[in-house]
TrEMBL record, chain B:
Keywords: Amino-acid transport, ATP-binding, Nucleotide-binding, Transport. InterPro entries: AAA+_ATPase, ABC_branched_ATPase_LivF/BraG, ABC_transporter-like_ATP-bd, ABC_transporter-like_CS, BCAA_Transport_ATP-bd_LivF, P-loop_NTPase. The keyword Nucleotide-binding applies. The keyword Transport applies. This is ABC transporter ATP-binding protein. Residues 2-233 form the ABC transporter domain. GO terms for biological process: L-amino acid transport. Pfam families: ABC_tran. Belongs to the ABC transporter superfamily. It comes from the Bacteria. GO terms for molecular function: ATP binding; ATP hydrolysis activity; branched-chain amino acid transmembrane transporter activity. PANTHER family: HIGH-AFFINITY BRANCHED-CHAIN AMINO ACID TRANSPORT ATP-BINDING PROTEIN LIVF.
Amino acid sequence: MQQLINGIQLGFVYALIALGYTMVYGIVRLINFAHGDVFMVGAYLGFFALTSWHLPFPVAIILAMVGCALLGVFIERVAYKPLRRAARISALITAIGVSLFLEYFSSLKFVFGPYFRAYPRPFPIRTFTIAGITISNIQIIVLAVAILLMIALTIFVNRTKTGLAMRAVSFDHDTARLMGIDVDNIISITFGIGAALAGAGGVLYGIAYPQIHPFMGIMPGLKAFIAAVLGGIGIIPGALLGAIIMGIVEKLTEVYISSTLRDAAAFGILILVLLIRPSGILGKKRDEKV
Amino acid sequence: MLTVSNISVAYGAISALREITFNVEKGEIVTLIGANGAGKTTTLKCISGLIKPRQGEILFEGKKIDRLPAHQITKMGIVQVPEGRKPFVDLTVWENLLLGAFNRPKNEIATALERVFNSFPRLRERLHQRAGTLSGGELQMMAMARGLIANPKLLMLDEPSMGLSPLLVREIFSIIREINRAGTSILLVEQNAFMALKVAHRAYVLETGRIVLSGTASDLIEHPKVKAAYLGE
C-alpha cells in the first residue's frame, strides 16, 4: 500500500510529461523527443527561482511553466514548423537533434553546468501517518499540483473555444482550416501547453527526488513516452492512466524484485504494448483516412 | 464577386488544372460539372486556399486571395463544404456547428443556429449526438449547416449529392436553392450534372483540367455534347 502511494506520486509526475507527448502527437503526429529535456529545463528554472531569486514555491512553478511554454513554442517554430510538409522521419530525427542540443547546451558551464545540483526544499518535510500509511507533505503537494493542472487542462480542452479547435486540428488539419481555424497557431499553443506541463513536472520532480542534472530528462522522458503509448498515444486520459500504471509498476518492481530491474520493467511494458496492443489501452483502431 | 483567372495547378509532374478562368457573380448559383479527376475539387481547394495555384490569380470582391492562408479566406466569407462532408466524427453535432461558427462573435451564434435549424430541422434532434452516429444524409446536412453558420458570402459545395438516395438528393438541392434565394452565392461542384444544371444559373464543364464548355445552365442542359457525355442521353 505504501509503495502504491509512492508509485502514484511518480506516476503523476510522469503524467505531466506524458500529456505533452500525447497532445503534440495528437496534433502533428510527431514524437517530440526533446520533450524530456524541456522537463529538465523546467526543473532548472524552478531551481534558480527558489535558490538564486528566493521566490516562493508557487511562483517558481508558474515561472518554470511560462519559461518552458516559451521554449516549447520556440522549438516548434524553429525546428519543426519548417518540416511540416516533410517526411515524418525528418521531424523525428530533428526532435532527437533538439533533444541532444538541449542536453549538451545545458551542460555548458555558463548555462546550467554539467554537475548534479541538490534541489532546495521549499518547506520542511513533514510526514503524516494515516491508517499505517505514511504520506509526506511533499507527496501531497506533488499530487495536488498535478491533479490541479490536469483538471485545468481537461476544462481547457473540453470547454473552451481554443480547446475545441485543438480537437478539430488533431482530427484533420485541412478541414479545421476550412472552419477558419489558424492551424499553425493552434499547433504552437499545443506545444506551449505541453511544455508548460512538463515544466511544472520538472519542479515537482525536483522537490520529490531532490537532485537535478542536465541529463535528468532522458529517463523520465522515455518513461513518460512509454506511458503515453501504453495509454494510447494521442488520447489525453490515456496519458494519465498509462503514467500511473508506469509509476506503480516501477515502484513495485524496485521494492519487491530489484531496483536494478526498474528500468527494464518500464521498457518491458513498451515491448509488451507494442506486441499485444499497439494502439494502447484506450486506443481504438482509427479508420484510415482516404 | 469571385474571379478566377488562368489558374494552373500541378501535383508533382502531373498537371491537374490548366489555365482555368471563370467567375461567380453575386446572387448566382454557378456549377462546375465534369467527370472524376477533371479537376473540380482541385479548383475549389485553390479558391479556399488549401492548395496554392502555380500560376494565375484569384480575386474575391476585388481583393487578391490566391496567396492567403485558408483560415483568412474563410474569414473573408468564402466557405467550402468539402467532398465527403469531412465531419469531425468524435465531436458532437453541436461542436461541429460551433467549429463552423469559429470566427463569429459569441452573441451571434444563437441566432445563426436558429437560422440553420430552419433549413435543417432534423439537426436539432441530433444536436448532442456524436457526428459519427449520423446517417449519410444527416451528415451532408450537418456539413452544409456547418458551412452556413459561418454566414458565407460565397458557399462552395463539393459533391453534396454523393452517396445519397434520389429522394435525399432532391431535398438537398431544394435546400441549396433556398440558401441561394436567401442571398448566398453558391459555387457547386457535382458529378450529378442533371441536378446541378437544373438548380444552377450558369455552368462550366471541366475535362482533364480544362474548361471545355460554358454557358447558362438552361443552354448547357440542351447542348448535345453535355447530353451525350454527362446526362447519358
